[in-house]
């Protein structure tokens, strides 16, 4: 370590933040809040009630269910309480729900249908689209053993994604079941936990590596483009073929996929039970009106290796995005869930059936921002301060607009007219209000519709013509100002 590394930071070097904890400005905050409002609105429509738990839970109550076994004793941010008990920032919204159910006991009726939205924290290596602090929006049903409860979660998740603007073909929810996976693992003789984990991790890479790459990982191993070697699961050729046949059983319809799975899933009792689960879910999805394109049965889905006990679901954004580098790519996973019947049993010893669905709000907001589809901000009307010696008129007009229910501010900086107009444009203002000495004498105000003015200005050829035309600009009596501004704001909204 150099002397420079040991010196205390000063000045601009101090202005740094930990990786994975993004700063958010109004555009992203606004988009995120709108997503939460929309998704929780769907949850409420389906009969779920709100529950909010604290940011911290005792670490031994949370357990550790993050699917990152390569980094043992990591994954959470923890501190010691004053009684020396370890507390952790919650890493999801489901483990706190299980604690709440166990603690509340019989005072909470079952089934208990709850939704929650809020930040969660994971002490993982951050990367593109992977944060240490991010928002989730969950719905869970505790105390419902039937697979129609899983189907409800899936169909409701699809409706939530449509509600935030996803169209047919732009997203899909993929459904599988842990029991079917277990049946396949039994049929190929995967007895050890390490072998099973290696197989499941290989299947999870099917979309990225393709059948040949997964076949290598199921067998002896794979050498990637960088020269790194990943040890395989050690299956023989026949077993690799059987696992791939299962993973690639997906078809155009849920019925066709189920027919393929009945041939590929093997004859174990666990496999048969898993197939029955998916058949029951498929029937319920039809009753719930979930379109085939929104929800598919996909045996390659592997989710929550240490968490889920039955059906699992993965929501994926399919719409392609062109990046600044000109390359086309997909955002990928934006949510999911599954059945977790063993979670409450950690506290009570009682197996309590539970199922849930989660929308990754932060990831979805980032995806919409990349695609240029965040909701347009309702910037404030800016009242220009044209009399620096006496700003009272600007303050008075801004107050009138706010009292009428409009978002408005009086300019507080020290710039002239040109600088104030640039400020209003940067704030996303729908309009500016100007009151100079001429307007004061005439009892009027000048209002400039910034959106209309920008549109009309494109057709103007010279500065002289622009000054004469004053595009998007009107003068009205002061007692008509509020309604004139309101019309401009509503037209742009």
UniProtKB/TrEMBL annotation:
Residues 34-368 form the Aminoacyl-transfer RNA synthetases class-II family profile domain. Its main location: cytoplasm. InterPro entries: aa-tRNA-synth_II (IPR006195), aa-tRNA-synth_II/BPL/LPL (IPR045864), Anticodon-bd (IPR004154), Anticodon-bd_dom_sf (IPR036621), His-tRNA-ligase (IPR015807), HisRS-like_core (IPR041715), HisRS/HisZ (IPR004516), HisRS_anticodon (IPR033656). Keywords: Aminoacyl-tRNA synthetase, ATP-binding, Cytoplasm, Ligase, Nucleotide-binding, Protein biosynthesis. It holds the Pfam family HGTP_anticodon. It is found in: Cytoplasm. Residues 13-22 have a biased composition (Basic and acidic residues). It catalyses: tRNA(His) + L-histidine + ATP = L-histidyl-tRNA(His) + AMP + diphosphate + H(+). It is an enzyme of class 6 (ligase). It comes from the Bacteria. One of its GO terms (molecular function) is ATP binding. One of its GO terms (biological process) is histidyl-tRNA aminoacylation. Residues 1-22 are annotated as: Disordered. One of its GO terms (cellular component) is cytoplasm. Its EC number is 6.1.1.21. L-histidine binds at residues 92-94, 122, 136, 140, 303, 307-308. SUPFAM superfamilies: Class II aaRS ABD-related, Class II aaRS and biotin synthetases. The keyword Heme does not apply. Homodimer. Belongs to the class-II aminoacyl-tRNA synthetase family. NCBIfam families: hisS. This is Histidine--tRNA ligase.
